[in-house]
Amino acid sequence: MKITVLYSGNYGERVLNTILEKFAQNIVSIHEIPENLPEYIDDVSEYVPENLKESDLIISVGLFGDINLIVCDIVKKTNAKSIIIESHSPKQVTKGLKSEISNSLNGIKIVFPKPFCSLKPVDDKYIDEFAKYFGSPEIEIIGETIVKSVTVKRNAPCGSTKYVAENLTGYSLNEVEFESGNKLHNYPCLASMDVDNELGDTILHLAGYKIKEAVKKSLRFSNKILTVTADCKGFECGFKCYKICPVVKMGEKAVEIEKTHANINNLFCGCCMKCVDICPFNAIKVLNYKI
């Protein structure tokens, strides 16, 4: 697999350094895009890098606004088949810009993970090969009551999963889920704290939910879960819990609908409590329970 990387800013540089650890031999072209470009650019062609090489996958990291449109020109010059354009800020790639890029590249597989650590396989040869190693965090925690070791099976593209794993040893298993979020902040996670209108939450919070999801999947329990009682009448309210859930909007099945009733999948749930607050039937309860 041949990869071209476009990057900008501190976040872009961090991701580049992380993925070089695995894909150094696959990356055929690296191009730094200037920061602080205008949000709206009439003609992005002047920013298209020279000396582009034949590629299978284009990864765009840290670009804001119209400059993201350069991928359309780069695809033509590199014959790339797949594209990853990440977002760690609501200001990077608007809904309209996504549509413009997608419509311009009909037949090319494009994903827009927001945050980048939400990337999952999408039944695409090149994106899925990348997602084996970078994307939604996956870890293995060893220990009966205290964490003895943590192995990273899939790192976040920014490298935060590795950092979190290295700093969880010695904690009680009951503390690990909470502490994983703290360690992500300490890394520090560079995702935005501005609320993303598409997701209904901050991208930093969503990144936190992803590392906690990895912890819960490894431990098979959580200190706090949400459960839906028999009082649920989702068919009457239009399943407000599903519509408001930022993790659902991110692409995970945190809320699942079964005919007239909603269920919470606590492996994915970030316990943001938005569904609890909006439920008109007070049917979502908080419990301490093993998943």
Automatic annotation (TrEMBL):
The keyword Transferase applies. It is an enzyme of class 2 (transferase). GO terms for biological process: methylation. The keyword Ribonucleoprotein does not apply. One of its GO terms (molecular function) is oxidoreductase activity. InterPro entries: 4Fe4S_Fe-S-bd, 4Fe4S_Fe_S_CS, DUF166, RLI1. Keywords: Methyltransferase, Transferase. Residues 260-289 form the 4Fe-4S ferredoxin-type domain. Its EC number is 2.1.1.45. This is Thymidylate synthase. It comes from Methanococcus maripaludis (Methanococcus deltae).
